[in-house]
Amino acid sequence: MRNIDNQPSGFTSTQLLIVIVIIGIVVAVVLASGLLGQAGKADQAQAAEEIESIGIALDTYAKDNGDYPSTEQGLAALWEKPEQPPTPIDWKGPYLKVPITTDPWGSDYIYIRPGVHDRYGYDLISFGSDGREGGTGDAEDVVSWIRPDE
To answer: How does strand 142-143 pair with strand 110-112?
Structure first.
């Protein structure tokens, strides 16, 4: 006796298309989450590089003028001669070609002189993506007294 099956075997083109679309969505979600993690790491690295650049400019300022700018004078002392005391004795600025005032997340860098962590120097801080002290991942603080490779 012969078994007659009127049902076609295999998948229809509509079923194949649905499977391909679902696989594409899963791949896109996985790739996007990986890329977003890399963007956070890139911003952290940029903040560390900017803090390093500002630090070099601050050290040069201190060498020329006998001390770092005061907290009140702030980072602006690196590209404009401070008008308020302590008046720099031999300002040879600008010490930065382009003023760096904000971190990669758009928040102002925090400059404290004398520093809480470096009482003979200064503290320079970015509070990361969340703009608050502490945090992990891309919300982790980037600071002048700890190098990223330490």
So the answer is: unpaired
